[in-house]
C-alpha cells in the first residue's frame, strides 16, 4: 500500500487520487487465492454429496446387477441362500415414519398453538419451550436405551389391551411380547415432537399480529381465527417442519434399531418385530458377506433417494406455499 | 337462534352457553391436553436419564475400563469418554475450516451466481442425509479401501463421518451470520483502502464471530451424540485409545452395544454413559445460547 503511485495527480487534479491507486501484485494474489480457497471449500459440499452417491452406488452395483428393481418389491432377505429383497425394510421405514407423523403432527401442532396463544403465563410457556428444545438435543441412542427399559414395560399392557379388543384387525393381530414396530413408532413420535413443535411455533409467531386482530375485529372467535387465519398464514412453515420431521424419521437409526426387533421376514401386524432400512444396515453391516454387503449398500442407496426426494419436496413446498406479509 | 337474541337485546356480553363459545372451550381443552401429552414424555425422558444415570455414576468410572461382559461388575467408561472427546475433536478439525470457509464464500463472494445457489441447495440436501448414510459412505471410502495407511476401523474415519454431518450446520450458520453484518462495515473497510481479503478476515468475520461460534458449538453438540456414523467407522474397543488409526470406543457406541447386552454391569454402564453424554450435550447447548446472547446485543 505504501507503493501507491499517483501518476495522474498533476494532469487532472485531486480526483485521480481516488482512481489511480495501483494495487501491488502480492495483494491481488492474496485476494484471488483467498477467493479460490473458500470457493474450493464451498465446492467440498458438492464433492461430498456426489461422492456419497458414487461410493454407495459403486458398492451397490453388484446387488443392482443381481436383483435389479425386483429388490424393491421382494420381501425375501435370506443370507443363507444369498437372496436379498428390501421390501420389508422399505415398508417398515415408510410405515414407522408415517404412523409416527400421524401421532406427532396433532400433538406437535396442538402444542405449538398452545404455546403461541395466551392460554398460560409467558413464564410457563418459556419453560415448556425450553424443555421441548432440550429433548431435541438428546441423542437418539439414549432415547433407544430409554425405550428399552422404560417405554416398553410401560406401553406393553396398553398394547396388549388393544390386541385383546381389536385383535381381529390384522394390524393388531400379534400379542406384543417383545420388541416391536409399535414401540419404534412411539419412540419416533417422541423424537419428532420437538422438531414439529419448535418449527410450527416459530412460524405461528411470525404471523403478523394485525392479522389476528383483524380476524377478532370482524367477529371471529379465537379458534375461528386460529383455523381460518393463523394456520393458513403459517402453513408453509408448518408443512416444511413436518416434511423435515418425515425425513428425520425415515433416516433415524439407533433408537429404532434398539427397539424394533430387527426381524427380516414380512409381518402385517404392527405389534410384531420388524425392521427399517436404517436398522437393517446398522444390524447386519458388521457381519455381512460380500453380496449381502452390496445388498445393504443398495438399501442405503434406496434410503438416500427417498430422503432426498422428501427433502427436495419440502423445500419446494415451503417456497410454493410461502405467503409474504410486508 | 343467537342472532335473534342479539338484535333484540343488543347487549355485547360474553354468553358461555353459545355453541361457538362451547366449541371454543372444547378446542382449548384439546390443545391443552395435547400440550400435556407432549410434555409428559419430555419430562419422563429427561428425569429417567438424569436420575437413573446419576445413580449408577461413580467418579472413578472416568478412570476405569469397562469390565469383561458377563464376568464382573464395576468398571468404568474412561476409554469411551476419552474416545468421544478425541473423535469429536477430529471431526471439528475437518469440519470447522471447510464449513467456515464455505460459509464465507457463500456470503461474501457468492451473491447471485448459479454455483453458490447450487452449493446452498447441496448444503440443504446434505443436512437431510440420514446419519447412517454418512457412516456407510466413509466405510466405503476409507475403511473398506484401507486408504489411510492400511488401517481399517479408525478414529480418523469416525471423525470424518461426523464431520460430514457437522458441515451443513456450520456452513449455514456462518453464511447467515455473515449476511447479518451491515453492508456499511464492508464499504467502510474497502473505502479506507483495505483489500477484499483484509476486509473479510479483519472486519466482517470478527463482527459475526458470535453467530459463527454458536453454529460451531451446535454442530459439535449434534455430532457428539451421533452413533450411527460411528458403528462402522470408529467401531469400538474395550481398551484405552491406542492411536488415531486404531478402532476407538465412544460413549454413544458404548451405550448402543451395552444396551443390548443381558448383563446388569453393562446396562448400568450404559445408563451412566447416557448421563455423561446428555449432560455434555446440554452444557454445549447452554454454551451456544450464552454465545448467541452476545450476538443479539
Summarize the structure.
With 326 residues, chain A is mainly alpha-helical. Chain A has helices spanning 9-12, 16-19, 25-67, 70-73, 87-116, 122-137, 140-166, 181-205, 209-217, 222-251, 254-260, 277-284, 290-321, and strands at 77-78, 83-84. Chain A folds into two domains: 9-67; 70-321, Orthogonal Bundle (MetI-like fold).
Give structural notes.
The complex is a heterodimer of chains A (about 325) and B (about 300). With about 325 residues, chain A is an all-alpha fold. Chain A folds into two domains: about 10-65; about 70-320, MetI-like fold (Orthogonal Bundle), CATH 1.10.3720.10. Chain A has 13 helices and two strands. In chain A, a hairpin with a 4-residue loop joins β1 and β2 (about 85). The termini of chain B are far apart. The longest helix of chain B is centred in the N-terminal third of the chain and has 38 residues, at about 20-55. In chain B, α2 (about 20-55) crosses α11 (about 265-295), α5 (about 130-145) packs across α6 and α7 (about 185-190) runs antiparallel to α8. Chain B contains eleven helices and no strands. In chain B, about 50% of the residues are buried. Chain B has about 300 residues and is mainly alpha-helical. Chains A and B meet through α3, α5, α6, α7 and α8 of A and α2, α3, α4, α5 and α6 of B.
Amino acid at each position: 500500500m505504501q507503493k501507491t503511485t499517483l501518476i495522474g495527480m498533476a494532469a487532472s487534479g485531486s480526483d485521480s487520487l481516488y482512481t489511480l491507486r495501483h494495487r501491488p501484485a502480492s495483494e491481488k494474489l492474496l485476494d484471488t487465492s483467498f477467493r479460490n480457497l473458500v470457493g474450493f471449500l464451498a465446492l467440498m459440499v458438492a464433492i461430498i454429496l456426489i461422492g456419497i452417491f458414487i461410493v454407495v452406488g459403486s458398492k451397490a452395483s453388484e446387488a443392482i446387477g443381481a436383483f435389479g428393481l425386483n429388490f424393491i418389491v421382494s420381501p425375501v432377505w435370506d443370507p443363507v441362500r444369498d437372496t436379498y429383497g428390501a421390501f420389508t425394510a422399505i415398508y417398515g421405514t415408510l410405515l414407522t415414519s408415517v404412523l409416527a407423523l400421524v401421532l406427532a403432527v396433532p400433538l406437535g401442532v396442538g402444542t405449538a398453538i398452545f404455546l403461541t396463544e395466551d392460554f398460560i403465563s409467558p413464564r410457563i410457556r418459556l419453560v415448556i419451550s425450553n424443555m421441548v428444545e432440550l429433548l431435541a438435543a438428546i441423542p437418539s441412542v439414549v432415547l433407544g436405551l430409554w425405550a428399552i427399559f422404560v417405554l416398553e414395560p410401560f406401553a406393553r399392557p396398553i398394547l396388549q389391551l388393544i390386541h385383546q379388543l381389536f385383535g381381529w384387525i390384522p394390524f393388531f393381530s400379534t400379542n406384543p411380547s417383545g420388541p416391536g414396530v409399535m414401540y419404534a413408532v412411539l419412540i419416533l413420535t417422541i423424537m419428532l415432537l420437538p422438531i414439529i413443535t419448535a418449527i410450527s411455533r416459530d412460524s405461528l409467531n411470525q404471523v403478523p399480529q394485525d392479522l389476528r386482530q383483524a380476524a377478532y375485529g370482524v367477529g371471529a372467535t379465537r379458534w375461528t381465527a386460529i383455523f381460518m387465519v393463523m394456520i393458513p398464514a403459517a402453513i408453509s412453515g408448518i408443512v416444511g417442519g413436518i416434511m423435515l420431521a418425515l425425513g428425520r424419521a425415515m433416516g433415524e437409526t439407533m433408537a429404532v434399531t434398539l427397539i424394533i426387533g430387527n426381524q427380516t421376514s414380512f409381518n402385517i401386524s404392527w405389534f410384531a418385530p420388524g425392521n427399517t432400512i436404517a436398522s437393517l444396515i446398522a444390524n447386519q453391516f458388521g457381519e455381512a458377506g460380500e453380496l449381502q454387503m452390496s445388498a445393504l449398500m443398495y438399501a442405503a442407496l434406496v434410503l438416500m433417494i427417498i430422503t432426498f426426494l422428501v427433502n427436495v419436496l419440502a423445500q419446494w413446498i415451503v417456497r410454493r406455499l410461502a405467503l409474504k406479509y410486508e | 337462534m343467537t342472532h335473534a337474541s342479539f338484535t333484540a337485546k343488543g347487549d355485547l356480553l360474553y354468553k358461555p352457553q353459545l355453541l361457538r363459545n362451547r366449541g371454543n372451550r372444547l378446542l382449548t381443552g384439546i390443545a391443552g391436553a395435547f400440550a400435556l401429552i407432549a410434555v409428559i414424555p419430555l419430562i419422563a425422558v429427561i428425569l429417567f436419564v438424569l436420575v437413573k444415570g446419576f445413580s449408577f455414576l461413580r467418579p472413578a468410572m472416568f478412570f476405569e475400563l469397562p469390565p469383561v461382559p458377563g464376568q464382573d461388575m464395576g468398571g468404568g467408561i474412561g476409554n469411551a469418554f476419552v474416545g468421544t472427546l478425541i473423535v469429536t475433536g477430529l471431526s471439528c478439525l475437518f469440519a470447522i475450516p471447510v464449513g467456515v470457509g464455505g460459509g464465507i464464500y457463500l456470503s461474501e463472494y457468492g451473491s447471485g451466481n448459479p454455483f453458490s445457489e447450487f452449493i446452498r441447495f447441496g448444503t440443504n440436501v446434505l443436512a437431510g442425509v440420514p446419519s447412517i448414510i454418512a457412516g456407510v459412505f466413509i466405510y466405503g471410502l476409507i475403511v473398506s479401501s484401507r486408504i489411510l495407511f492400511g488401517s481399517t476401523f479408525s478414529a480418523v474415519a469416525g471423525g470424518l463421518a461426523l464431520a460430514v454431518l457437522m458441515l451443513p450446520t456450520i456452513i449455514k450458520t456462518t453464511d447467515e451470520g455473515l449476511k447479518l453484518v451491515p453492508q456499511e462495515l464492508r464499504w467502510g473497510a474497502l473505502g479506507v483502502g483495505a483489500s477484499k481479503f483484509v476486509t473479510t478476515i479483519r472486519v466482517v468475520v470478527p463482527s459475526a464471530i458470535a453467530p459463527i461460534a454458536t453454529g460451531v458449538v451446535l454442530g459439535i453438540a449434534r455430532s457428539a451424540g451421533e452413533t450411527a456414523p460411528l458403528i462402522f467407522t470408529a467401531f469400538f474397543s474395550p481398551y484405552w485409545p491406542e492411536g488415531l488409526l486404531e478402532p476407538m470406543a465412544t460413549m454413544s457406541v458404548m451405550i448402543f452395544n451395552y444396551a443390548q447386552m443381558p448383563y446388569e454391569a453393562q446396562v448400568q454402564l450404559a445408563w451412566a454413559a447416557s448421563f455423561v453424554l446428555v449432560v455434555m450435550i446440554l452444557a454445549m447447548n447452554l454454551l451456544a445460547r450464552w454465545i448467541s446472547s452476545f450476538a443479539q446485543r
